[in-house]
Amino acid sequence: MKFLTAKKRTLLIALAVISALIAVIILSIVTAASSAVAPNGMTVVIDAGHGGRDGGVVGTTGVKESEVNLGIAKSLRHFLTEAGYKVVMTRETDTDLAGGGGSFKQSDMRARKEIIENANADLMISIHQNSYPRKDICGAQVFYAASSERGKAYAETMQSVLNGTLGSDRVAKSGDYYIIQCSETPSVLIECGFLSNPKEESLLVTATYQQKVAYSIMTGVRVILEEERAVQPSSSA
Ligand SMILES: [Zn+2]
Fold first, then answer.
1. Domain of 85: which CATH number?
2. Cα–Cα distance between 2 and 10 in angstroms, integer?
3. Tens of pLDDT along 97-128?
4. Distance 192 CA to ligand 1 centre (A)
């Protein structure tokens, strides 16, 4: 698999970050709906982590990760749909997907896997929030499955975009998470921020910041699926 040269990728990401930053400033001033573009033929699965009986990690104020995940996931669906993507959500309400046999978590994860596989998507994004004993730790972190070269390249691009737009300074990492390993769909898991950091938590619970995060992720998706693919060389280089 051939991906962009580091130089080209850096330039693309820098341009995308600049335009996303401008858009986020405009977003914070007006929340007017822009006109949707024609479908681009690409599909993205958005997985809002946890839900229902599984709230995920809990913030310093008691906010549940599952609620923040769903807020960002819905906002991301809005931006991706407007950009011409078909979006498939693993959940749209504060519910879990358990119901079959096996343990609660196994049943919930199997249902998500089935949705991802049936979507035949170009990309799967699982939305989560982080938590850590040290309260000063903050910032968005992107994970990929170690077995997926494409997932790694996508995660690195997404991390660079989020670092630029959200002011984080992290490196994409491989992560042993079922959701990014359970299908052939190129997948990334995004821990958007730390609910254990009071300052970051106070941002993550607001609709405005959730929109900013979602817009940043949408920008990352566009760099990955439109710009990188468009300039991907067909011959070896
Ligand atoms: Zn989580």
1. 3.40.630.40
2. 16
3. 998 778 999 999 999 999 999 999 999 999 99
4. 10
Q: Domain for residue 161, yes or no?
A: yes
Write down the pTM of the prediction: 0.90
Ligand 1 mean position to 135 CA, how many Å? 17
Domain that holds residue 142: 6-26+46-230
CA of 29 to the centre of ligand 1 (A): 31
Burial class from Cβ neighbours inside 10 Å (0-12, 13-18, 19+) for residue 102 reads exposed
Q: Total domain count for the chain?
A: 1
Residues with C-beta atoms within 5 A of ion ligand 1: 49, 56, 128
CB 179 within 8 A of CB 159: no
235 domain-assigned? no
Question: From ligand 1's centre to the CA of 38, what distance in Å?
Answer: 33
- Å from CA of 5 to ligand 1 middle: 32
